[in-house]
Amino acid sequence: MGGIVCLLAGVIIGWTGYNYRIENRNQQTNSRKIILFNDFYANVSTSLVSIAITVLFIDQLNRIRLTQQERESLKLQMGSPNEFFAIEATRILRNRGWLTNGSLRGSNLSIASLRESELQNADLRNSNLSKANLQGANLEGADLRGANLEMAVLDNAILNGVLIDNHTKMSNKWHLVWKLVNEEVYGQDFKGVDLQNAVLRDAKLIGVDLSNSNLSNADMRQADLTRAKLINAIFDGANLEGINFYDAKLIDASFKNVSLVNADLQETTLENVSLENANLTGCNFNESNLKNANLRSSTLTNSKFYRANLCGADLRGSVNIEECDLTSFESDEYTLLPPEYFP
């Protein structure tokens, strides 16, 4: 502010001196009074402008220094194990544009509590995120090349579009999750893997073999598992809304307490599966094999079982079975239907 005042004063005085010279140009040129005034205006104006430039330059340097101090302070705060401080720092860094412009490269965020933080497109190259809590964090599009995520908590974290390289350190489990949502894995064998609490939303997993794998509490909304092999897989508590299991093999799989709203299970092999307490609203089981399946206490609103095999299936306690399409379904003496159903 002081620099601007000096600059304005210098300009005004210089302009006044110029006007004074113009008004007295017809008078005697060697008049001592005129010379005195001309020198006064010229010297004062020049001095004030010089002072103004110096002050403005110093002010700019101070602003740069304060900005750097604020940025470093926020980086330290972001690495805090206190969730409130870390999340608030992340929010401010994003608003300042520092989360994505490379200012955080090489940051020490070890043990940072960043649960459910918004880290989309964050540039965290070569940063230390070991033991950081990134549970439920949105890392979509983040740059984690060269980053250290050893022992980081990544349950329910979104890894779609994340950039990693050979120098990125992360556990085998989360590296696999990254691979499943970012690479072509058609028909590959992943039997017996641990994918609990993984976010596999929109993943293209056509023809993969995930038999004997644990996908409990995974988020697999809109994923495509057409013709996948999932024998004895565990999906308990998972969110499978809109998933595509067309022609998949799900023998002996467990789907307890899952949400399969609007899922496609046409022509799927579901022998001996457990769908107990599952939300099957709008599911398409047309021509599927549900022999000996357990659907007790499941919600069947608007589900379709056209020509499905329900031999030995247990549907006791299911909700809204009267709203199902059970046209031409197959049953036997071991099929157990709720009393409100009247074929």
Helix coverage percent: 25-40%
SSE order, one letter for each helix or strand? HHHH
Query: What is the CA-CA span between the terminal residues?
Result: 86 Å
Largest sheet: none
Rg on CA atoms, Å: 35 Å
Structural write-up:
With 343 residues, the protein is mostly helical. Helices cover 27% and strands 0% of the residues. It is built from four helices and no strands. The chain has helices at 2-23, 32-78, 83-96, 172-182. α1 (2-23) runs antiparallel to α2 (32-78) and α2 crosses α3. It is elongated and about 105 Å long. 40% of the residues are buried. Mean pLDDT is 87; it is low at 33-40.
Features:
mainly alpha, 4 helices, 27% helix, 343 residues
Task: Summarize this entry quickly.
The protein has 4 helices and no strands.
Layout of strands and helices, then pairs:
Layout: H1 2-23, H2 32-78, H3 83-96, H4 172-182
Helix pairs in contact: 1-2, 2-3
